[in-house]
Specification:
The chain is an alpha/beta fold. It has 8 helices and 4 strands. Bound molecules: zinc ion (ZN).
Length: 245
């Protein structure tokens, strides 16, 4: 019996055990994201929602060979703690969580895992550990951030601001408008300079630019961005299934 659903949590232990035993289930996706400030208008679950909505259809394209784990929905977001509501894990805690999940997948009999990242702050901590994890677990572990799907030429041709991903700017806001518009809360209020204390001057400049850039967002653009990233992830999973670590 193959798995019943590409989402790990929707399967029973029987589904999982028999699909491993017959060899139909061959790889897992581990999505990692964040719950953090997304400027004035986007809900804080943005990264977690988007990495789930991108990995699920990519896994479905390889059904029943690939299963998607629950999103690790809090990441390394210490750089956004100027904005209350942001949740963060320390680098060490975050990478320990990821390692424990990889070890769980290995003990379940999976030998191929693609970690798909949806939050910039997670990238370095994971990249620094990849080799160590491969050596410790002896399984094939690949890693990508979904925005690797977009070339500079793509960004130039398909955005007004020229920026992908940015942060809560045109790109991310477009994805939310396309896929979960209930999480976009634009108002006519001006940029709330006086209410914010952003300690890093570069981040303060970016924050204002992203606030303005978000006004260029549209659901049409969002659908294009989503399709492009899903196609990229389908290809990454194809490579994972076809190659040996
Ligand atoms: Zn984001």
């Amino acid at each position: 019996m193959p798995i019943r659903s590409p989402l790990l949590g929707e399967n029973t232990r029987f589904d999982f055990r028999s699909s491993i035993r017959e060899g139909s289930l061959r790889a897992a996706v581990l999505p990692v994201a964040a719950t953090e400030q997304h400027n004035e208008h986007l809900a804080m679950h943005h990264d977690a929602r988007s990495v789930e909505l991108l990995t699920l259809p990519a896994a479905r394209a390889h059904f029943p060979s690939v299963i998607v784990c629950p999103v690790v929905s809090v990441g390394v977001s210490g750089h956004w703690m100027d904005h209350p509501g942001t949740l963060t894990l320390s680098k060490g805690t975050f990478t320990s969580v990821v390692l424990d999940l990889l070890a769980s997948l290995r003990s379940a009999g999976l030998t191929k895992v693609l970690i798909v990242n949806g939050h910039g702050g997670n990238r370095r901590p994971i990249e620094e550990k990849l080799e160590e994890w491969r050596a410790a677990l002896g399984i094939q572990i690949e890693f990508c951030s979904y925005w690797e799907a977009y070339s500079a030429a793509f960004a130039k041709a398909n955005t007004a601001t020229g920026e992908i991903p940015g942060h809560a700017a045109e790109f991310e806001t477009s994805v939310a408008l396309a896929e979960f518009p209930g999480s976009v809360h634009f108002t006519d209020a001006p940029y709330p300079e006086a209410a914010l204390t952003i300690t890093d001057p570069t981040r303060a400049i970016d924050d204002r630019r992203f606030f303005e850039g978000a006004r260029h967002a549209s659901a049409e653009k969002g659908r294009l961005y989503v399709d492009h990233a899903v196609a990229f992830l389908v290809e990454r999973l194809h490579r994972l299934l076809e190659t040996d670590g």
